[in-house]
UniProtKB/TrEMBL annotation, chain A:
Keywords: Cell membrane, Membrane, Transmembrane, Transmembrane helix, Transport. Residues 102-311 form the ABC transmembrane type-1 domain. Its main location: membrane. This is Glutathione transport system permease protein GsiC. The chain crosses the membrane at residues 12-34, 108-129, 141-164, 184-207, 242-268, 288-314. The gene is gsiC_2. It is found in: Cell membrane. Gene3D superfamilies: MetI-like (1.10.3720.10). InterPro entries: BPD_transp_1_N (IPR045621), MetI-like (IPR000515), MetI-like_sf (IPR035906). It is a multi-pass membrane protein.
UniProtKB/TrEMBL annotation, chain B:
Keywords: Signal. This is Glutathione-binding protein GsiB. InterPro entries: Peptide/Ni-bd, SBP_5, SBP_5_dom. Pfam families: SBP_bac_5. Residues 1-23 form the signal peptide.
Amino acid sequence: MLEKETPLLVFALRRLLSAIPTLLIVTLLVFGMVKLLPGDPARLMLGEEATPQALTELRHSMGLDRPLAQQYVGWLGSVLHLDFGASLKDNTSVGSLIADKLPVTIELAVFSMLISLLIALPAGLLSALRRGSWVDQGVTLLALSGISLPNFFLGILLIYLFSIRLAWIPASGYTSLLENPARNLLLLLLPAVTLGVHSGAVLTRYLRSSLSETLMQDYVRTAHAKGLPARRVTLKHALRNALIPFLTVFGLQLGGLLGGAVITEQIFSIPGFGRLLVDAVFTRDLPVIQGMVLVSAVAVFLVSFLVDLGYAAADPRIRYS
Amino acid sequence: MRKPFLSLCLSVLSAALIGSAAAETLTVGLDADPPRLDPALSSALVDRQVMNQIYDKLVDLDQNLKIVPMLATSWKITNGGLTYTFKLRGGVKFQDGTPLNADAVKYTLDRNMTLEGSVRKGELKSVKDVKVIDPLTVQITLSQPYGPLLAVLSDRAGMIVSPTAVKKAGADFQNAPVGSGPFSFTSRKRQDNITLSANKSYWGGAPKIDKLVYRPFPDGDVRYANLLSGAIQVMTPIDPKDVSKLSQNAKFKVLNYPGLGFQGIWFNVTRPPFNNKAFRQAVGATIDRQALAKSIFYDTVEPAAGPFPQGTPAYSSAIKVSRPDLNLAKQKLGGKPLSFTLLTTPGTVTTQTAQLYQAMFAQAGINAKIEQVEFGTLLDRADKRDFDALMLGWSGRPDPDGNIFDFFTTGGSNNQAGYSNKTVDALLAKARAQTSMSARVATYNVALGKILDDAPYTFVYFQRNLVGAAAGVTGLKPIPDGILRFSDVDLK
């Protein structure tokens, strides 16, 4: 018996609703994990010069002397009102900090995913079509190097070459797109390439293997036998199917980048999400850590949600039930 | 033909983009993002780099650590060291136009002593009250004589804030600081930059640079790369490994001058194994300070014999750096086995140092395990005395008291060892109550003799200030507190 097909909209709503309990568990985990971290944020803020009296005062004003359950409920209550609290470091609201940093990282992530697609689509396609040839071997070798090359190394290498040796591109910094588009793109180029090379290499490997698998399927052989032009068979029939696993990996890569391209942001001194997180962890800025982890969880959920919807576009056989 | 043309185009394009910032902007690379720009709340060392340009202090330090006039043109110490009367400079205005007078000074000092969360309370503990005598005279009365007061006022406690601005900004003053210094606060973007602009009506004359930008680069290699590429013109600090490379490069210069702090190892004297004095002495005797300075720090640190670096007022050549003595170490151990855990923070230099210590201890048969925790946890465990031995130093203060009192008196806020010695307590209290520096130094030396023998801490090395700058930067003064002052700095 055939099940009745669920319309896309209902599926989307159901997916969104089912995220609520998951996100609640995430808040509990986030809160618990931050509390499990060793060290005392008040001690860290006062540093070397803390006197016991100043410590007690600060702990009280930070609410650290209240029972854990009370702290959690208080925090969750404000989060539901989209109030993530204020940074312990300088009293700025966590919401505005995130709103400030997230667009930078989103821009960097989108830019680097574009670069990675620019690398992966032609390289993966070429490699799968010429399987076993020297082109394929070359691409495989390059992709493996791209995957193995650590970000920090590639980043420093690019800085050395383009900033120090050639002096074409500044070594670090960030200007917003609205303020100065040309400078914005120039400054983001090296970090985007650093990130894009890695995910481009990963995606190349996935595209190659999934496309070569598809090319050996019966329906592809049938299409060839029917006398369809090879180009059409590859691009229309095979590539479309091969894109499904590719899309999953693409989503994962993008989700990871949104969670914070921590090392790359450090190397190029980009004031993004990843850097803020590292800084917050080191200074035990609890409200900032909690707010950021929560926002990352939502971002990863949203990306995977969009990827699910994207499947339908790539492959009409996928039905939502 | 095409390639040179392309690269020419690119260079012109990037020069236009990079060089669009005018030449009068000076960018300084720091090792951390300064958290709080409010002198009452600041607890990080790096805050002072920025705050020193925004705020003037009552007094300042010169290259020889002498206290020199700044907002106070002169001062008198009377009543057996209990009363300090400061004459203020006339006609000084804060960057927001508020006049700087005795009321503003009183307001600032009172705020430092009462504001919730103020980190200055400890330093100003001996202040009984602050009185306005006339608009340009202010008097501080102490409850007991406190020799280090002037030195304390040459740092954050003496930075005078604009009362108008504080009242207006409230808790947000740390993000909108106003002082009377050579540069005024323009903007900040966390983890990206803090921008200051020249205070054209500065009483000491307008600064030569128009804009001063601070940028944080936590990674030393990244900071170094940015200096080489011209993105920053000054960096502090330079990693020791890069010092010789940079000083051989004609486009740059290196300022390498003594600092005020010390580094070494604390022993927890409240529990075994280091409640045994002989064990502490044994560990101390294995350390080869020269070898450490050479192999890990490329000779950019000085072996230490106590808490007072050479060039500071309490330094005494009579106290000699101890040479490693394995026979002495073995003799102190008395054939008993000694194993302990050395607590430290992660990081290349700390890891290498800990491993070198471990190897040095092993030569005397002492077995040390290294445990690494991040800095906040280290401080927390130190407070709870939950450690055997730990590596922790001090950034240092210009007055000797700031390098010894809280570390070795019973219950002192930096006494990580839990060390207590009545004689030392009495001597250190006596030293801070004395007003003549030579008398104080003599007292410190007696106290130090006892502390070094008791060995709750092993002093290992003094760090130097390592600053890198583009060759065109002039006027940087090597003041041992490590804070760069930019009022007279120029960029050619």
